[in-house]
Amino acid sequence: METRPQPGAFAPTRWTLVLRARGDSSEGRAALGELCEAYWTPVFRFLRGEGRNEDSARDLTQEFFARLLARGGFDTVEPGRGRFRSFLLGAVKHFLADARDHERRLKRGGGQAHEPLAAGTDTSPGLQIPDPASAPSDTFFDRQWALVLMDRALRNVADEFKRAAKQEEFDALKPWLVGETEALSQADAARRLGVNEGAVKVAIHRLRKRFREIVRADIAQTVEGPAQVDEELRYLVEVLAAV
Fold this sequence. Notes:
The protein is an all-alpha fold. It has helices at residues 14-21, 26-38, 40-48, 54-71, 84-109, 138-163, 167-173, 175-178, 186-193, 197-220, 226-241.
C-alpha cells in the first residue's frame, strides 16, 4: 500500500542518501540511480535544445548517465550544499565541455588514435557537438525539470484515482488542475458526475491539495532538508510562469 507523506515528516531522501554515502554504499548508489532515472528527461531535452537530432541527444544522454553512475561523479559535491537539480546541470555542462574537447582533438588529429570520451562506451565522431554559444540557458534546463515534475505528479494523481475506481471523476475534474477550464463550468462537471456543485468544489480542492502534496514529496527527494522544499517549489513555479 502506498504511504502518503505525513505533515512535518522529512525522512532521509534520495539526495541526502547520495551525499551521505559518497558512493561507498549500495544504498547511496541505488538512490543516485533512482534520481538519474527520474530526471533523465530534462538532460535529454537540454541536449535537444542545443540543436541535436533525437537519436544523437538520446545516445549522448545515455552516455552521460552511464559515466555519472560508473565514475561516482557526485563525490565532488560538498555535503550541506546544493540541490540535485543544480548538481545535475553542472555535471552535464562539464560532460559537454569534455565532449567538445574530444571533438576538437579528433578534428586536429585526423585519423590518430584518441582516448574515448567515456570508458566502456562507443562514441563516434559524428556526435556533432554544438558550439557552446548555441547552448540552451540554465533557465531552459530548470523549466524542463519543472515540466517533468508537474507531469509526473499529474500521472501519479491519475493513477491514484484509477486504483480507487474513480477514473470518471478524475477526467471530469482534471481541467481544474491543469488550467483548461475556459469552456467548462463546475455545474457541468456536477451534472456529469451526478452530484451537486458544492461537492465538485470540495473535490477540486482535494484534488489540488493532493497534487501539491505529491509535487512537494517529489521535490523533497532532490533537496537536503525541509527548508529547501518551499524554496525549490517557489523557484520552479516562477520558472514556469516566466514563459
